[in-house]
């Protein structure tokens, strides 16, 4: 799926994997992608920060919910099913705009388009009052 991502979106996934590794998590979940988007510092990060969802607040919320894992020895962490679904939703958001590639704004919209509100990223963003509509408005500004 990486081939459909822009360079910035790919970078966000590299940063997501680094964050997952720093927490000793053996997977890349939506929470890691969310931090990857913030760490990448592009359009999605600016939209989140304009809504009061800064990196330290997001990281604190994530770590409060899931904590740290046990030390692991494997280096490659697979995407969760939810993360795969979010990328598919992001691809649909990009297609709706007539774009061939998925950028960081599309990934953020994909996170917030997931109907399963059990995901850590959606729970953290929801606790901060960040909604899909608010993000769309911030991206359009």
TrEMBL record:
SUPFAM superfamilies: Double Clp-N motif
Ranges where the Clp R domain occurs: 2-141
DNA-binding found in the keyword field: no
Gene Ontology MF term list: ATP binding; peptidase activity
Top-rank taxon: Bacteria
One BP annotation, GO: proteolysis
A Pfam family it matches: Clp_N
Annotated Gene3D superfamilies: Clp, N-terminal domain
Key words, A-Z: ATP-binding, Hydrolase, Nucleotide-binding, Protease, Repeat
Protein name, UniProt field: ATP-dependent Clp protease ATP-binding subunit ClpC
């Amino acid at each position: 799926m990486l081939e459909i991502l822009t360079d910035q979106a790919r970078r966000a996934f590299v940063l997501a994997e680094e964050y997952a590794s720093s927490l000793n998590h053996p997977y890349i979940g939506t929470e890691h992608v969310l931090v990857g988007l913030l760490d990448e510092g592009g359009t999605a990060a600016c939209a989140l920060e304009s809504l009061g969802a800064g990196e330290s607040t997001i990281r604190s919320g994530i770590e409060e919910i899931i904590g740290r894992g046990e030390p692991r020895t494997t280096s490659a962490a697979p995407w969760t099913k939810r993360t795969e679904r979010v990328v598919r939703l992001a691809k649909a958001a990009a297609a709706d705009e007539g774009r061939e590639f998925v950028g960081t704004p599309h990934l953020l919209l994909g996170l917030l388009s997931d109907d399963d509100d059990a995901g850590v990223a959606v729970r953290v963003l929801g606790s901060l009052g960040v909604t899909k509509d608010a993000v769309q408005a911030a991206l359009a500004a």
